[in-house]
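Researcher: Following up on the earlier apo prediction. This time include the ligand. It's flavin-adenine dinucleotide, with the SMILES given after the sequence.
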Amino acid sequence: MKSLRKILPEDRFSIETEDIICYGYDASGIDVTPQAVVWPHDTTDVIKLARFAHENDYAIIPRGAGTGLTGGAVPTENSILLSFEKMNAIVDVDTENLNVMVEPGVVNGDLQKELDAKGYFYPPDPASLATCTIGGNVAENAGGPRALKYGVTRDYVMQLEAVLPDGTLFTTGVQTSKGVVGYDLTRLLVGSEGTLAIITKIRLKVLPKPESIITLLSAFPSLELAGKTVSRIIASGIIPRTLEIMDNMTLQAVNRYKNVGFPEDVEALLLIEADGNRRAIAQEAEKIFTICNEFQGKIKIAESEQSREYLWEARRVISPALYRLSPTKINEDIVVPISKVPELLSGLNKLSSRSGIPIACFGHAGDGNIHANIMTDRHNKENYQRASNLIKEIFELTLNLGGTISGEHGVGLTKARYIDMELDMTNLTLMRGIKKLFDPKNILNPGKIFPEDKKTVQR
Ligand SMILES: Cc1cc2nc3c(=O)[nH]c(=O)nc-3n(C[C@H](O)[C@H](O)[C@H](O)COP(=O)(O)OP(=O)(O)OC[C@H]3O[C@@H](n4cnc5c(N)ncnc54)[C@H](O)[C@@H]3O)c2cc1C
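Model: Understood. Below is the ligand-bound prediction.
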């Protein structure tokens, strides 16, 4: 590894223990120390590093901020960790053509602030936006609360500059609003979890900010009634900007963590937003009030921008807040067709009662994406085994309802052993063939996504 100094200046890599141990983990809790960490300053550094790794048979692990929940950025042994924290420039904001060009290490929240000041916004808003990077968002096809109305990362990526594992540089996509020349390699790279190519520049679509936003909180006596409200709102033809759900365990955890003052004598909360022109959203809000009332939902409106922001801060701390309830949580981000949300929630409730393992539910209910958090303790063997057994049952429930086992967190290491519950042999063979074409030596983020590599998956 010392020969890295032949290709990069001393300040752009390290093999020192105190540096490399800081890059051995992500939010999945899995930890494997890499052999070296490299901080590229530009695309040329990435090309040099890829050629070096290719020639010397080292694995390359791209990393944004390490907020991924499925182990995507966790190193393998004999790997070089490629951290994009120094490639964090917003290269160009082109408001005439409604797009921006960024380097992969730009933090999502920093881009949001920059655009907000100019009267624009970039819709994908993962709850981790204060730290996660656009590169990580592209590699995971991240979503967020606003995905319900505005779609996910994939819907905003126009062009990518990327480096193949052998160091070949290429660009995909177009900078025009339309383009159908050849296969859509941009969409293929989005969500490829850093297994096909290293992304070095990203052109994203942006939108003008809506004229107005209404935010409201509705409290329900049962989770099922909240689920029915979600299905009814969508079936009535309204597409709110966000439609988030929190169960009682989740709202209590948030109250303890942040003292938000959520009512605790209710079983579920919905955090709903509508945006657009003032008159139109007033009408939408009226319809939403009526539907909430029909299902016994009690409503409170955020009266100011400050109280609106406060509610969203509370929403974004759910994940750390839940860790205060139990030391280990297994977070699954299942999705079902919207009309099946009530069935999914009652199915999860039954699984929890039967196993005696609490499952905290929250998430993007409006697009059918529920984060089911199995609350356990990895040091209590018996309890942890019972909790782990629930994963397969939750996936079976989800797939039987016509859903998918991951809406936004990807497969990474933690879901690799379950991928064939959803994908048949034809799909898996095609996908493995694509991986081989991009990465014949299997050096780019090896061990991620595919089931034959599941030996590394232990959580
Ligand atoms: C509290 C919390 C809340 C979250 N909320 C959401 C949410 O609402 N919606 C959501 O979708 N996700 C959410 N996540 C998951 C996570 O934040 C996202 O998956 C995010 O996109 C990861 O970004 P990152 O920069 O941290 O990437 P990392 O975790 O560092 O990496 C993720 C994957 O991207 C690859 N990668 C990173 N950079 C590159 C690159 N330049 N080229 C190629 N591959 C690359 C890595 O190899 C890895 O496979 C949440 C996580 C936490 C901890």
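Model: The longest helix spans residues 381-400.
Researcher: Noted. I'll compare it with the apo version next.
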